[in-house]
Design brief:
There is one protein chain. The protein is about 55% helix and about 0% strand. It is an all-alpha fold. Helix 2 (about 30-35) crosses helix 3.
């Protein structure tokens, strides 16, 4: 890992060392990483800076793996390991939730409660 990236992640927002994000004040939190990524950081909140810093430290694949593990845990816990049933239920619920706000009536049927609430 690049030494600049390691050094940029040390510390926290809101301290005198890193600034408090006031107008015209240079924010140093994650600045080396953001400079490396060529991101304009003047309009970013401390939370956004932190998120970009973590993303730069761990990389995209790390968060993809977290998402895969989380989805698989949900599938195993609520759908008995049936990935297809989980994606079908999520898709149907999403279509129903979007469709129920239409004034001409619902086209999609409610797939029922989440298996956790049965």
């Amino acid at each position: 890992m690049d030494e600049k990236i390691k050094n940029a992640a040390v510390g926290s927002c809101g301290t005198p060392e890193y600034g408090n994000g006031e107008e015209g004040e240079e924010r140093k939190y994650g600045s080396q990483i953001l400079h490396h990524l060529d991101i304009n950081r003047q309009h970013l909140t401390p939370q956004q800076l932190g998120g970009l810093t973590v993303k730069a430290l761990y990389g995209r694949e790390y968060f993809r793996e977290l998402g895969r593990k989380g989805f698989q845990a949900t599938v195993n816990k609520y759908f008995g390991g049936n990935r297809k049933a989980a994606t079908q239920w999520l898709s149907a619920k999403g279509l129903y939730e979007q469709d129920k706000n239409v004034s001409y009536g619902s086209v999609f049927q409610d797939p029922g409660p989440h298996p956790a609430h049965l």
